[in-house]
Structure to design on (310 residues):
DNA sequence: GGTATAATGGTCAAAAATAGTCAGACAGGA
DNA sequence: TCCTGTCTGACTATTTTTGACCATTATACC
C-alpha cells in the first residue's frame, strides 16, 4: 500500500523513462489520481527537486502546463556540481537526495546507496560526542548494520 | 503471567516463521492487542534487538510501517562481535580492519568496502568543526568522490 | 487595444496518518 | 523492601493529504 505520492512519483518517472522531459496538466493528473491539485505540487517538490536531478517548469493560465525535465550531465560536471551543492555543510534530507541522484544515474547501485545513506544518517552522526574516533565508531556501526541489511535484501 | 509482551513477541515471531521479514502497522498491532502503541516499541526494543538476531526499520507518516527482519544465527554472531569490537570509539586502522573483514566474508563487495573506508577515513571525519552538518558534508564528499573512483575502476 | 472571464498553476497552513521517546506507574520476585 | 521488567500516557517527530485562497495567462468580447 504505497502512499499516493509514491504512485504519482512512479507515474511521472515512467513517463520519463524514454524521454528526458514530460509535460503534464496539473489538474488532469490530480483528477486522474483523485486527489487535491496541490498534491501534485507536493510530489514535484519532494521527489523532483534539483538535488534529485530534475527541473520543473510551469506556466499558469489557459493551456498552462507543468514540465518535468530530467537533468543529464557529464561525469565531470556532475561531480563538480554535486560537490558544490554539498558545500561546507549539508542536512540529512539534502544529503539523501544527492545519494538518490547518484543511484538514479547508476553511479552507485542500490546497496552502495544504502551504505551511503547509513553513513550520513542522523543516527550515524550524532554529536555531543567530541572525539573523532567516537564519531567514526558511530558511523561505522551504522555502516555495518546497513551492510547486513543489504545482504539480507539481495541485489 | 504470560505477559502481553510475550504474546506480541510470539505473534511477530509466528509471522517470521516462513518469511525472513514482516511488515507491521504499529497502531493496528497495538489495537489488536488492546494496548498502548508504545508497547509495540517496547517489544521491538527488548525482543527484536540486533543481538537477538533482528533488524528493525520503520517509516512514519502516511502509509508508514515497521519492518522486522530476521537474520541467521551465524550472522547474528558475526554482527554482534563486530559491533562489540567497534565499541564506543575506534581508530582509523582498526576501522579499516573491520571493513576488510566484511569484505573477506563477502558481506560487502569491493566497491562497497571502498565506500565504507571513505566514510570513516580521517579525511572524511575531520574535527575542529563542531556542527553535525559540517561533519556530514565532509563524510558525504568523501563518499561521492569514492563512488566516482569506483565507477572509473569498474567492478 | 482594453477588459472581463475562464482556465490554469502556486502557496501555505492545517489536518490526518503514522511512528518514536521518555518518565513514571505498577507488579511480582529476590 | 528493592529491583527489574512491563505497561501506559503524554508529548514529539515525520510524512502525506487536503482545502482555502492567491497569481498568471489566454482568449473572447467589446
Amino acid at each position: 500500500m504505497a502512499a499516493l505520492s509514491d504512485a504519482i512519483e512512479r507515474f511521472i518517472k515512467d513517463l520519463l523513462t524514454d524521454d528526458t522531459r514530460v509535460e503534464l496538466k496539473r489538474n488532469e493528473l490530480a483528477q486522474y489520481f483523485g486527489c487535491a491539485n496541490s498534491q501534485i505540487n507536493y510530489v514535484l517538490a519532494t521527489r523532483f527537486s534539483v538535488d534529485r536531478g530534475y527541473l520543473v517548469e510551469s506556466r499558469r493560465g489557459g493551456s498552462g502546463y507543468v514540465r518535468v525535465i530530467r537533468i543529464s550531465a557529464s561525469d565531470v560536471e556532475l561531480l563538480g556540481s554535486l560537490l558544490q551543492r554539498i558545500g561546507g555543510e549539508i542536512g540529512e534530507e539534502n544529503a539523501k537526495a544527492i545519494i538518490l541522484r547518484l543511484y538514479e544515474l547508476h553511479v552507485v547501485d542500490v546497496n552502495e546507496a544504502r551504505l551511503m545513506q547509513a553513513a550520513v544518517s542522523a543516527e550515524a552522526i550524532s554529536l555531543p560526542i567530541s572525539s573523532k574516533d567516537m564519531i567514526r565508531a558511530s558511523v561505522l556501526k551504522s555502516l555495518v548494520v546497513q551492510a547486513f541489511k543489504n545482504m539480507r535484501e539481495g541485489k
Notes: Residues 32 and 74 of chain A are 36 Å apart (CA to CA). Residues 25-27, 37-38, 40-41, 58-66 of chain A lie near DNA strand C (CB under 10 Å from a C1'). The domain at 2-70 of chain A is CATH 3.30.56.130 (Phenylalanyl-tRNA Synthetase; Chain B, domain 1). Chain A touches chain B through 53 residues (CB under 8 Å).
